[in-house]
Design brief:
heterodimer, A: 308 residues, alpha/beta, Rossmann fold, Alpha-Beta Plaits, 2 domains, 10 helices, 33% helix, elongated, B: 350 residues
Chain lengths: 308, 350
Amino acid sequence: MTNNTVVSCRDLRKHYPDVKAVDGIDLDVQAGECFGLLGPNGAGKTTTIEILEGLNVPDGGEVRILGLNWRDNERELRERIGVSLQETQLAEKLTVYETLRLFRSFYRNGPDPDDLLQRLSLDEKRNARVGKLSGGQKQRLAVACALVGEPDILFLDEPTTGLDPQSRLQLWEVVAGYRARGGTVLLTTHYMEEAERLCDRVAIIDHGKRIALGTPRELIAKLEATNIIEFESVPALDESAFQSIEGFHGALRRGTRWQLRVDSLAVAVPQLLSAIETREARLETLTTHAATLEDLFVALTGRELRDV
Amino acid sequence: MSEPQKRPTHPPLVELTIVRLKEFLREPDAVFWVFVFPLLLTVALGFAFREKAPDRIPVGIVDGPHAKQQLDALKKSPALGPRIYSEREGREELRRGRISLLVAANPSPVYSFDATRPEARTAKVEVDDALQTAAGRRDVFRAKETQVTEQGARYIDFLVPGLIGMNLMGTGMWSIGYTVVNARLRKLLKRMLATPMRKTHFFAAQFFSRLVFLVLEVALVTLFAWLVFDVSIRGSALAFMTTCLLGGAAFGGLGLLLASRAKTLEAISGLMNVVMMPMWVCSGVFFTYERFPDAVKPVIRALPLTALNDALRAVMNDGYGLMQIGPQLLYLAVWTIVTAAIALKIFRWS
């Protein structure tokens, strides 16, 4: 933990009767960075972020936000952080402007609601009822409500879940705009792409534990492989068939499909094809892609993000 | 991240209250139940039970040589509605209770009637009087009559305060209970908790917005009842307003208490009905609770709706002032404080 650390937690724990939602998580978020909690649904991301937001009380561990703790400094912290919860439904009968104006009234400082609407491209919807907005517009309004107190830290829980690609892009721009003004962001997501695009650093969470931490690039490098080959053959091959491939780092079987982690596609693909041929198997499908955080998650847990 | 600046909005309590008022007015259903429905109920019940001129008592005359003459004599009485029947028909009608008395001429009149029925006894006096007069009887003196319909003693006078009370109960509990549970359901409460908003402001805004509508809805029903049914407030306006406000506060507190933990709209609806049902029945909205056994009356009187109805009737019909409705106001104040205190203690924001 350095002087620059704005969010930190040590050995965070939250146990429910049937599940250890958070099971000893350590995090440090630096001022000005965008930090992502990445993991499948039910991994403990929301419980973790809600504890950091002071909306949930941990069973154990320590939390410091901007050097303060929730027990003694709640009002001060509420003024200085902005929060967008997962799936909050704002009042449908109010207009966009009325909603933002209400939230603005809660804070000492912050932008004029109209300026903020313009910044988030919601000015055209100023007088529209919240109930009539599209999913993307609702989500931008939710983020606007989080920004209306001019926070030092912005907490976003699954900000783009369920949004179409264009709305997601617009929301990313909003986050980028906030960071350009010097803000710190802590977000949760189960989209690898979002984590790779937005976050300076990512913690991968699974079963309430932090199973990896680093920049997206560092994490992908941990795979010790830059590329992924996925293929199916009839009959399916045995894992021993891959051992001779140069730059092979590991394989994972998913039904009839194999997923191989390799260094170079140019080297590995021909060798794989010949291995298939020598075993007199027939190749059904073959795809390749550059390794992503998703592949890291699969390599770490043996599960795909969307399965869980 | 910036210097303190002038707020571009009203203070949070004002903003919260305004927002609540707007939300309400944009909910057509709510507007109907709070403002239109009580008026419809007042109209329907007011007309159904309105005071009519006393009915003429139906009496029968057995057809015969003197029947026509007797008919003319009885028609002179304002209290009687005579008709000529055949002997058999007349007996039949009397047996069924459609006429209260049957006159036969034999040649002097014979009255058949059921002496256990007050109306029949009245009919006998009236019929005898009319026939005697027609036969030439002279009254020794003639008394003057004054008709009395005391304002405040009609059924509509009883009904209107009851309706105001019932309305304050329904709208007070629903508007607060429903709003709070709905906001919890939509995670809006939790979202508010994540702001520097003061919790007391949230609750106060619920009460203040409720207050605005309370004044409107009471004024509407009262004005309507005054214009259409000539129901007026005979006691002090201050006592009337105090009663309404305390009643509104008591039901607001009760609504908040029921909503303090409920997580679904079904749960809050069920709770509301369980709590309101006994009061609809026992608290003297449509009929007096005086007929309940004496043993339960103290309990009934302590119910918030009973206390409210009793106080409203005392002020509107009996012309009482603040001092005389002290016990009822005390009940309402206790209800308000106790329910609100428990509600705030056990309230869940998520």
